[in-house]
Amino acid sequence: MNHRKRTKKDNILTARWNRFEKKTTKSFTLSQLRMWDTFIFLIRFCLLAIPLHLIIWTGYDFSHIISVTSHFTSNALTLLGTDFFRIDNTFFITTPTGMLAADIIKDCSGWKSFLALLSLIIATRHAGIKARTIGIAAGILIIFIGNIIRLATTFHLTHMYGLGIFDITHNMLWQGGLIILVLVSWFIWLDKIAFSKRYI
């Protein structure tokens, strides 16, 4: 009963919004309609940034995700033949210029990148629930794999070329790389899935 009441209330709110939007935009030109869609997208995206600030404010530690990230990063380094050992979530890697000790912390888990992709998908207008669900599910996998590749290659390159390469690969190459991965994933979702009749 409560679910039905909520659904009915949601439908009423949706209908009211649709009437308001139709009335507001009825005299808009095509370019104005595009600007309106962009405006609504930006409002939604900004509102969806609230969970990011709540997570930061509450200090949630993502301990389980960090452990999983460390485990898969360790497996990837083993496959690459990197000389290292791990204690909990700290990696010790031999390099030509000394030993690297690197902790896998909350910000290494890729959660901000996933939340950014999630926000982009949810904020996109006129996409169906099925399309959004596929995008979010695929997004979890893509960001996770991309993040493991980021960490493993950063550690492996440091192992090969020395400590001086660590900051370059970590701060410049791969932090920017995750941003590019998020945007490319979103663009592919927009192009192939979001508005496809198959996923309505």
What is the residue-mean pLDDT, rounded to a whole number? 84
What is the helix/strand order? HHHHEEEHHH
**Count of DSSP strands:** 3
Distance between the termini: 27 Å
Q: Which secondary-structure class do the elements indicate?
A: mainly alpha
What would you call the shape? elongated
Classify the beta-strand content into a percent band.
5-15%
Spatial strand sequence of the major β-sheet: 1-2-3
Query: Which stretches of 5+ consecutive residues score pLDDT under 50?
Result: 1-6
Provide the gyration radius in Å: 22 Å
Characterize the biggest β-sheet.
3 strands, antiparallel
Number of helices: 7
* Domain count: 2
> Helix fraction?
over 70%
Description of the structure:
- The longest helix is centred in the C-terminal third of the chain and has 33 residues, at 129-161.
- The chain has 200 residues and is mainly alpha-helical.
- Strands 1-2-3 form a 3-stranded antiparallel β-sheet, covered by helices on one side.
- The chain has helices spanning 2-25, 30-47, 50-58, 63-80, 111-123, 129-161, 164-194, and strands at residues 84-87, 90-95, 98-103.
- The protein starts with a helix and ends in a 6-residue tail after the last helix.
Offer a few descriptive terms.
200 residues; mainly alpha; 2 domains; 3-stranded antiparallel β-sheet; 7 helices; 3 strands; disordered N terminus
